[in-house]
Write a structure and sequence with these properties.
158 residues; 28% strand; 11% helix; mainly beta
């Protein structure tokens, strides 16, 4: 009888210890702070649901030496594909605007990379590569609530 009770206690202890598993919560990758020369980026890093026709820019703390801004120092990418974009410098706001030549796709993650060689008017450089990502929204806005040209029926959006 005592052996049977002891056996039941051992089985119960094993069952309780096997049923409790500690699972560590998932951890996000560390957020890399921007270099001190980068004041702000838009869209914000890791943002989701960004409107597909939004402006893309980076604001610097010091004016950029525009001779160091080119497609070799600023990269706009979808996955690993580089996309053509127009770069324009606004000295009043110290913002570098990145305008893709084609519209952004829906539900696509885009990456903007800045090379360490970007120079500033005070003679310094960015000093390290910096990148951030954002993901576009999943629905396009309707272009016109009116019927298509040559159609007598309702618009497909009604």
């Amino acid at each position: 009888m005592k052996a049977r009770v002891g056996l039941l206690l051992v089985v119960a202890a094993l069952a309780l210890s096997c049923g409790r598993r500690t699972i560590a919560p998932p951890t996000a990758p560390p957020v890399v702070p921007p270099p001190p020369r980068v004041e702000a980026v838009f869209p914000p890093a890791r943002s989701m649901g960004v409107f597909y026709a939004t402006a893309i820019w980076v604001q610097f703390a010091v004016a950029v030496d525009t001779t160091t801004i080119s497609d070799r120092t600023v990269f706009f990418k979808a996955d690993t594909r580089r996309l053509p974009a127009t770069l324009s410098w606004d000295p009043a706001t110290r913002r570098l605007r990145i305008a893709p030549l084609a519209g952004l796709n829906l539900r696509q993650t885009y990456t903007v990379e800045l090379a360490a060689g970007i120079g500033f008017t005070d003679g310094s450089t960015l000093g390290q590569n910096y990148s951030w990502q954002f993901t576009t929204n999943s629905l396009r806005r309707p272009h016109s609530p009116l019927p298509l040209d040559g159609r007598l029926e309702q618009s497909p959006f009604v």
